[in-house]
């Protein structure tokens, strides 16, 4: 009995609802704690809220007042952002932009009126916490007497669904590896697209063309995940549904960097809302949900005693997560076939100019209507490998190619009511090109990261119209805080309202919104690792009232800027029989501080170090001027070396400063020129990561000091490789390479 | 050397169960076993006479469900998982075992009502209206040709075009209104010519060439003789060697007849033709 009372008290604490000035205050208490999870067979650190991952679903009705009390029991600061909600700026939950971070052991209360309905979600906006558990569904119900209440939709049984992914690697490390162009994720995913694989697939020329245009292997996503999750589970069942039931799934993509394909074993799905806004129902076979988007989908359970699989497949199709709707045997839906990467590479080659810009060949692409990635989808374009497999060559089936699959695109979304903006308001036009490069994993807008830009000032009452062009090679889910925008998708006055816009490479999309909520609002790519690389802007209302949570905004903005321009560390050393070869590097968006060394085991082989401090120039960052410092010692009895230009030096003992530059040539060969203070010059060609097979890399170096090197490395684990190389100074060697 | 710890583990955690898996022949057997077997985890031995499989697995590493799910994804039903319908229908014909009927006899009539409500909810293109338009047969066979080209199916395009040719000749011109008749006479000969050409060849490239002018002429007529259901006039800038080409479709969604699957979504609607 005592126990029951205690339980009741806890419940009351969590959900104490009382009437205040005629409005319902709905209170949630959220306790944020470190936890250990085991999603993949390994125990790893994660963050749980009220002891659960995902965070609890928060439900409100339009007109309520939300009171969410956050107890931070972590050893680090945190924050919560209410994704897609209209609220006072100070409640928006972006540390250093709308509030100070919630410190360890601090309690912070978010309180705001709920003035909209729809499927939304919430997540941490601090660092990379969203990746390790801090995401949850947020359901805002319509009032029963709302004139927009849709019978047959808004009265259906409903299930909040939040999609996410799990990696055993610490997210900070994931970010660091991406910046270092570490290809371990590609090895794990089988997407290295090495020369041997290219030759096998008959695509040697494609691969060569790709490297000529200085592209790294292309992929639709960058991170390797160990598990994909629906409501925190890889597989689960909702057995309460029976034959004939219609169920509304309120789906949010809480993944940090994964787009998900959604499909259903029980027939077509009816899309009824997107980003919390109703749309005219549209029937589809499948849809892709961008990072941080939400879709409401109605599905039917067709038969008795069968559960139907609802499948979420990440865009790279490496794995999937399922939830079974209904009771009994499970009717599965087919898995999405592997992507034809070399077809995608070929398509990219055709679209890429030599200077790294893209050419859409006059196709005027917009709003996902033309998905260039389709060339990689075997279920649409057929599977050439199947034909070659003799066993499968039965006359009655040549791999069902389903061209009649209806895939949702933004062009099909239509608002049920006109969404036009006030006609007499002044119009503010803005244009952004989404930019970035894979080689150094720098993502930006107009080739500027947040730390290189000021806030963008807008005025209350004006219509802001933004044209976005994606000139980068990846798709980006661009999210605007605090507002819904109209996606001008050809539906005229019924343009759908959204707060996240997925924009594919080479697309140009226009969005517009009425500036009606003063404050500082974040506008950013919602792929967590792109955001942390600086693909952000801030829209700031002119003459806004001060924010009580953030007294010193100028200082805070600098903090915000530095969050997405951190220095990353990288190190490597080859412990070989003929010496040690290695390097360390600290680098951020533009600057690089690096030292390379070659250390022999005796004075005759010598010891050598080269330090470079450089700055990357241009949007592809192929060019890096630097100042350098060379130091070397060896004892070869004063033997004098002559370089190609007839300049001499003994190299026995040398400490010189230099000026130079590095430039990435076609085939990704690095060309380096250097003038030393003693007048000597050196030119060098080098490439270290030619992918021969999925795990085998070939390296070579040759320079005008008549030094040369060639070697192979076999990558065994994330941090370990087996290597052999021949060096003109030290001869042949074998060793193990450790890298971090 | 590697076997030892494995055997050791197996003696501790190995489980063996017998389960029914539906299938027919030897090809089924090898597909089922290949899908179920996983190194160091599970071994499946299916008997095509009894339809029962003996599965042995390491219960720490995997489960019966995981194994049966893999087998179902390869096309074979069990009492836990049903194979995806398209995977099943892609099995070789000898493997198309008899599936247990899924339809539930208890399905009652009221369920139908629910689906009708559903239909009124989304304005679907399902409604098949009886069209009194004397040209509707021509339009319909044109759409059949277009759909065949979307599927890059030269043979079907040829057959459909034969029908189109017949329908063009069958049009009762006395039923046409004055302005429609005028428009029809302008393009009549060209329509016949293109339809005949497409019918006479199976080369998809040349069929598509003729389809450019065929579409243009159908459009000229349809502009005057509109249908009740909307038709979408669509354009792809890449077709016709970059000169661009049009076609007509009953759906607003782009399905490009000039490229088929390669560039299925290339293009956009330039005009909606509706009464």
What would your notes on this structure say?
The complex is a heterodimer of chains A (740) and B (275). By secondary structure, chain A is mainly beta. In chain A, 11% of the residues lie in helices and 42% in strands. In chain A, the strands form eight sheets. Chain A has a twelve-stranded antiparallel β-barrel with strand order 33-34-35-36-37-40-41-42-43-44-45-46. Chain A has a six-stranded mixed β-sheet with strand order 11-10-13-18-15-16, with no helix packed on it. In chain A, strand 41 and strand 42 form a beta hairpin. The longest helix of chain A is centred in the first third of the chain and has 13 residues. Chain A is globular and about 95 Å long. Chain A starts with a helix and ends with a strand. Chain B is of the alpha+beta class and 275 residues long. In chain B, a hairpin with an 8-residue loop joins strand 5 and strand 6. The longest helix of chain B has 23 residues. Chains A and B meet through strand 16 and strand 21 of A and helix 3, strand 4, helix 4 and helix 5 of B.
Shape of chain B: elongated
- Residue-averaged pLDDT of chain A, rounded? 90
Percent of residues in β-strands of chain B: 5-15%
Distance between the termini of chain A: 57 Å
Map the helices and strands:
The complex is a heterodimer of chains A (740) and B (275).
Chain A lengths: L1 H13 L2 E4 L2 E15 L6 E6 L5 E7 L3 E8 L8 E3 L23 E7 L4 E6 L11 E7 L16 E9 L4 H9 L4 H6 L5 H6 L3 H9 L14 E4 L4 E4 L7 E8 L6 E5 L4 E6 L2 E8 L1 E4 L4 E7 L5 E9 L6 E5 L3 E3 L9 H11 L26 H4 L2 H5 L38 E11 L4 E4 L10 E3 L4 E8 L5 E5 L4 E3 L9 E2 L1 E4 L4 E7 L5 E6 L2 H4 L4 E6 L11 H11 L4 E9 L2 E9 L3 E9 L7 E9 L7 E11 L7 E2 L5 E2 L3 E13 L3 E8 L4 E11 L4 E8 L4 E10 L2 E8 L3 E9 L1
Parallel strand pairs in A: 2-5, 4-9, 10-13, 12-20, 19-21, 22-25, 24-32
Antiparallel strand pairs in A: 1-2, 2-3, 5-7, 6-8, 8-9, 10-11, 13-18, 14-17, 14-19, 15-16, 15-18, 19-20, 22-23, 25-30, 26-29, 26-31, 27-28, 27-30, 31-32, 33-34, 33-46, 34-35, 35-36, 36-37, 37-40, 38-39, 40-41, 41-42, 42-43, 43-44, 44-45, 45-46
Chain B lengths: L2 H11 E7 L5 H11 L5 E5 L5 E7 L5 H10 L7 E2 L2 H5 L20 H12 L14 H15 L3 H17 L7 H23 L3 H21 L6 E6 L8 E5 L18 E6 L2
Antiparallel strand pairs in B: 1-3, 2-3, 5-6, 5-7
């Amino acid at each position: 009995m005592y126990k029951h009372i205690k339980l009741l008290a806890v419940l009351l604490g969590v959900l104490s609802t009382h009437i205040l000035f005629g409005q319902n205050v709905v209170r949630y208490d959220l306790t944020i704690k470190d936890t250990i999870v085991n999603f993949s067979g390994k125990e790893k650190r994660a963050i749980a809220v009220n002891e659960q991952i995902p965070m609890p679903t928060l439900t409100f009705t339009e007109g309520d007042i939300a009171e969410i009390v956050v107890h931070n029991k972590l050893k680090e600061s945190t924050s919560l952002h209410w994704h897609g909600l209209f609220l006072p700026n100070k409640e928006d939950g972006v540390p250093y932009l709308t509030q100070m971070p919630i410190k360890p052991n601090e309690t912070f209360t978010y309180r705001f009126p709920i003035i909209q309905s729809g499927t939304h979600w919430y997540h941490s906006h601090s660092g990379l916490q969203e990746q390790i558990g801090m995401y949850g569904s947020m359901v805002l119900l319509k009032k029963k007497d709302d004139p927009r209440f849709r019978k047959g939709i808004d009265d259906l049984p409903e299930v909040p669904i939040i999609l996410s992914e799990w990696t055993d690697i610490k997210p900070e490390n994931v970010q660091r590896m991406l910046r270092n162009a570490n290809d371990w994720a590609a090895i794990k995913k089988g997407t290295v697209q090495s020369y041997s694989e290219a030759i096998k697939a008959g695509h040697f020329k494609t691969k060569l063309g790709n490297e000529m245009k200085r592209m790294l292997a292309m992929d639709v996503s960058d991170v390797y995940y160990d598990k994909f999750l629906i409501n925190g589970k890889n597989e689960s069942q909702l057995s309460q549904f029976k034959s004939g039931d219609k169920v509304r799934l309120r789906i949010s993509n809480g993944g940090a960097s994964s787009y998900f394909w959604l499909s259903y074993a029980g027939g077509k799905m009816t899309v009824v809302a997107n980003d919390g806004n109703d749309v005219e129902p549209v029937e589809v076979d499948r849809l892709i949900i961008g990072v941080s988007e939400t879709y409401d989908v109605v599905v039917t359970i067709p038969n008795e005693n069968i559960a139907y699989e609802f499948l979420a497949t990440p865009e790279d199709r490496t794995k999937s997560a399922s939830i079974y709707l209904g009771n009994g045997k499970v009717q599965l839906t087919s898995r999405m076939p592997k992507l034809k990467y070399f077809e995608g590479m070929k398509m990219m080659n055709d679209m890429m100019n030599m200077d790294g810009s893209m050419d859409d060949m006059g196709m005027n692409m917009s709003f996902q209507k033309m998905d260039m990635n389709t060339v990689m989808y075997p279920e649409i374009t057929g599977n050439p490998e199947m034909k070659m497999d003799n066993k499968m060559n039965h006359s009655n089936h040549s791999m069902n190619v389903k061209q009649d699959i209806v895939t949702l695109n933004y062009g099909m979304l239509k608002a049920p009511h006109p969404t036009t903006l006030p006609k007499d308001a002044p119009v503010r036009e803005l244009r952004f090109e989404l930019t970035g490069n894979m080689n150094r994993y720098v993502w930006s807008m107009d080739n500027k990261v947040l730390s290189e830009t000021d806030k963008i000032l807008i005025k209350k009452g004006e219509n802001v119209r933004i044209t976005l062009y994606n000139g980068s090679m990846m798709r980006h889910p661009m999210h605007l805080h605090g507002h819904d925008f109209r996606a001008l998708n050809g539906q005229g006055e019924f343009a759908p309202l959204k707060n996240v816009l997925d924009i594919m490479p080479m697309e140009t999309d226009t969005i517009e919104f009425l500036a009606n909520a003063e404050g500082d609002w974040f506008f950013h790519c919602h792929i967590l690792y792109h955001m942390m690389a600086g693909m952000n802007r801030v829209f700031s209302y002119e003459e806004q009232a001060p924010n009580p949570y953030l007294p010193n905004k100028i200082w805070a903005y600098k903090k915000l800027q530095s969050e997405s321009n951190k220095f990353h560390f990288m190190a490597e050393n080859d412990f070989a029989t003929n010496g040690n070869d290695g390097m360390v590097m600290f680098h951020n968006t533009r600057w690089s501080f690096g030292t390379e060394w070659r250390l022999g085991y005796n004075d005759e082989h010598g010891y050598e170090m080269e330090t470079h401090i450089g700055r990357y120039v241009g949007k592809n960052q192929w060019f890096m001027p630097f100042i350098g410092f060379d130091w070397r010692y060896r004892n070869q009895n004063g033997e004098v070396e002559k370089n190609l230009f007839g300049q001499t030096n003994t190299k026995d003992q040398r400490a010189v400063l230099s000026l130079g530059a590095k430039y990435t040539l076609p085939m990704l060969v690095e060309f380096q020129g250097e003038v030393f203070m003693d007048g000597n010059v050196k030119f060098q060609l080098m490439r270290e990561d030619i992918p021969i097979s999925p795990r085998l890399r070939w390296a070579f170096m040759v320079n005008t000091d008549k030094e040369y090197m060639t070697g192979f490395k076999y990558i065994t684990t994330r941090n370990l490789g087996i290597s052999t190389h021949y060096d003109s100074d030290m001869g042949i060697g074998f060793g193990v390479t450790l890298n971090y | 050397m590697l076997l030892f710890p494995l055997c050791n583990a197996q003696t501790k955690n190995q489980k063996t169960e017998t389960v029914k898996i539906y299938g027919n022949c030897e090809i089924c057997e090898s597909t089922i076993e290949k899908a179920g077997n996983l190194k160091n985890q599970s071994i499946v031995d299916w008997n095509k006479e009894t339809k029962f499989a003996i599965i042995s697995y390491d219960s720490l590493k995997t489960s019966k469900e995981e194994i049966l799910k893999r087998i179902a994804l390869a096309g074979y039903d069990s009492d836990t998982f049903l194979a995806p319908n398209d995977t099943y229908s892609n099995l070789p014909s000898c493997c198309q075992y008899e599936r247990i009927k899924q339809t539930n006899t208890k399905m009652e009539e009221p369920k139908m009502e629910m689906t009708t409500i559903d239909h009124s909810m989304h304005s679907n293109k399902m409604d098949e209206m009886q069209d009194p338009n004397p040209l509707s047969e021509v339009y319909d066979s044109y759409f059949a040709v277009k759909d065949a080209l979307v599927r890059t199916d030269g043979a079907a395009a040829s057959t459909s075009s034969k029908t189109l040719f017949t329908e063009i000749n069958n049009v009762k011109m006395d039923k046409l209104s004055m302005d429609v008749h005028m428009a029809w006479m302008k393009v009549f000969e060209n329509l016949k010519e293109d339809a005949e050409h497409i019918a006479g060849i199976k080369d998809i490239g040349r069929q598509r060439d003729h389809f450019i002018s065929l579409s243009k002429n159908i459009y000229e007529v349809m502009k005057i003789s509109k249908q009740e259901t909307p038709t979408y006039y669509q354009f792809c800038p890449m077709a016709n060697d970059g000169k661009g080409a049009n076609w007509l479709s009953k759906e607003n969604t782009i399905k490009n007849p000039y490229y088929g699957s390669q560039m299925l979504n290339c293009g956009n609607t330039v005009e909606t033709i509706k009464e």
